[in-house]
């Protein structure tokens, strides 16, 4: 497997480096060893655990480095992202150790000189300020040995990337062949059998409507929804960053420490408590895309157990730069089946639509059977058009796939494509041709896309191999900071 992923240097190097974040710089690698109780273990790599405490500490450091509120680091989503990063680092660390990669002194020195914080420690006379260097390390909770170890680790990872990827992806001929297939045009005629043309032929009885309702009550449920109070903290353009960060910390702390009401935070920061009713799992209806209750993270938090069952404030969420939101569920309205009398018109509409669609499909089936016997019969078909995968016209999805995959040795031919909820369309393919003009830019874009997809696939295989080799075992999941357990 490793020999397989040693191909494709530049592409895989790009993909790998997108995933590898050198967060070990100023973080240390001392957490590679140690023993913790199993209830605090989240994932084990080669028998060594990534613990909930470790994830929590890393999340706090990352939140501080990015200028976010410490409360943001307590969110499940943020800590899950940190866990994913730590897991990837551990897997790569295992690979580095297993391959016994080494880093020379010269390469390490060169790497250190590329770090802006280190370059800044050189005095005007060219000498290195060792005192400030040690102070810098101490402020980040590290000693020199840990720092050099972390830098060496990053270089070994880069060495691993270089050894994994050594050659270009050999696809010029393949990409040209695929581009040629995408350009090949087929002359197509369509004959549509739409349900709308058969609606007048359907007249269901009251008994049929009632029977359909009884058998499909789930179609007539009113989904659960909530009524919500929320507050928004926005940065003032005239306000300096430090002042706003202090307010953001207060906003997060007060809404978290006093979870039974938004009023304390609103009073302290002079914010207004606003209300929106009828918020579903898809968000509030009829609001702008940038509205706080249209934000997926906010809505997901509002539908969590703490918010629904205990009516607690959700943790502060940064929905955009300089905008923080907290909210709480005022009333939860569970899903319920609406009575027949309230949905009678919708029941009738659905029954008629389905019956009309069935009639359309039956008529199309009869016509298709006849055309298979005589595909040269073009009566009833629309005007022919030329289509290709590059220029599909109005053909989409399965219709395009079926039309473009027919055997060109047996033309003319017909294909039948069912379009659920609409009816059926029959397509008659009469001939094909290769266009005379070739767009070099399109070819180049397609080749790049194919190489990118191949690189992603190779990287996934590489990480899958080492994940298996490292014996990755998931012990516990990330939990809410309020719920205790492994996540507390």
Shape descriptor: extended
Number of helices: 16
Distance between the termini: 39 Å
The largest pleated sheet is described as: 4 strands, antiparallel
What percent of residues are in strands? 15-25%
Low-confidence stretches: 1-37, 483-488
Topology of this protein?
Blueprint: H1 9-19, E1 41-45, E2 48-51, H2 52-65, H3 76-99, H4 105-113, H5 116-119, H6 130-139, H7 144-164, H8 172-183, E3 185-194, H9 206-215, E4 221-222, E5 225-234, H10 241-257, H11 263-269, E6 274-279, H12 296-302, H13 305-308, E7 317-320, E8 323-333, E9 336-337, H14 340-373, E10 385-387, H15 397-404, E11 413-419, E12 423-433, H16 440-469, E13 473-474
Antiparallel strand pairs: 1-2, 1-13, 3-10, 3-12, 4-9, 5-6, 5-8, 7-8, 11-12
Describe the structure.
The model is unreliable at 1-37 and 483-488 (pLDDT under 50). It is built from 16 helices and 13 strands. The chain has 488 residues and is an alpha+beta fold. Helices cover 45% and strands 16% of the residues.
Give a quick rundown of the structure.
This protein is of the alpha+beta class and 488 residues long. It is built from 16 helices and 13 strands.
Provide tags for this entry.
488 residues; disordered C terminus; 16 helices; 4-stranded antiparallel β-sheet
């Amino acid at each position: 497997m490793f020999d397989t992923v040693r191909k494709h240097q530049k592409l895989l190097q790009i993909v790998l480096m997108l995933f590898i974040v050198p967060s070990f710089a100023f973080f240390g690698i001392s957490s590679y060893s140690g023993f913790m109780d199993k209830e605090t273990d989240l994932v084990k790599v080669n028998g060594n655990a990534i613990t909930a405490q470790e994830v929590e500490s890393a999340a706090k450091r990352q939140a501080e480095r990015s200028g976010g509120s410490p409360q943001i680091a307590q969110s499940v989503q943020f800590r899950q992202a940190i866990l994913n990063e730590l897991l990837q680092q551990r897997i790569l660390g295992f690979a580095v150790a297993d391959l016994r990669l080494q880093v020379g002194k010269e390469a390490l020195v060169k790497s250190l000189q590329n770090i802006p914080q280190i370059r800044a420690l050189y005095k005007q006379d060219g000498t290195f300020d060792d005192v400030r260097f040690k102070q810098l390390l101490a402020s980040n909770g590290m000693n020199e040995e840990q720092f050099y170890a972390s830098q060496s680790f990053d270089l070994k990872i880069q060495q691993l990337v270089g050894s994994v990827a050594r050659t270009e992806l050999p696809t010029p001929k393949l990409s040209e062949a695929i581009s040629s297939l995408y350009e090949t045009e087929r002359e197509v005629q369509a004959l549509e059998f739409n349900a709308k043309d058969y609606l007048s032929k359907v007249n269901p009885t009251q008994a049929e409507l009632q029977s359909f309702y009884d058998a499909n009550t789930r179609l007539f449920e009113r989904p659960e929804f909530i009524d919500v109070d929320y507050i928004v903290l926005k940065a003032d353009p005239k306000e300096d960053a430090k002042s706003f960060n202090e307010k953001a910390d207060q906003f997060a702390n007060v809404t978290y420490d006093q979870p039974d009401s938004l009023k304390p935070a609103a009073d302290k920061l002079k914010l207004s408590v606003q209300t929106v009713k009828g918020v579903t799992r898809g968000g509030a209806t009829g609001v702008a895309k940038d509205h706080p209750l249209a934000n997926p993270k906010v809505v997901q938090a509002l539908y969590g157990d703490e918010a629904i069952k205990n009516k607690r404030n959700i943790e502060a969420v940064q929905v955009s730069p300089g905008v923080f939101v907290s909210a709480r569920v005022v009333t939860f309205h569970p899903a319920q089946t609406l009575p027949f009398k309230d949905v009678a018109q919708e029941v009738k509409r659905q029954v008629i639509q389905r019956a009309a669609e069935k009639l359309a499909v039956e008529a199309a089936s009869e016509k298709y059977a006849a055309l298979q016997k005589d595909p040269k019969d073009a009566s009833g078909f629309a005007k022919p058009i030329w289509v290709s995968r590059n220029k599909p016209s109005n053909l989409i999805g399965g219709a395009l796939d079926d039309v473009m995959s027919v055997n060109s040795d047996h033309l003319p031919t017909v294909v039948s494509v069912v379009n659920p909820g609409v009816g059926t369309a029959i397509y008659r393919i009469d001939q094909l041709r290769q266009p005379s003009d070739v767009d070099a830019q399109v070819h180049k874009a397609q080749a790049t896309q194919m190489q990118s997809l191949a690189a992603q696939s190779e990287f996934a295989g590489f990480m899958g191999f080492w994940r298996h080799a490292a014996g990755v075992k998931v012990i516990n999941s990330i939990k809410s900071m309020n719920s205790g357990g492994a996540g507390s």
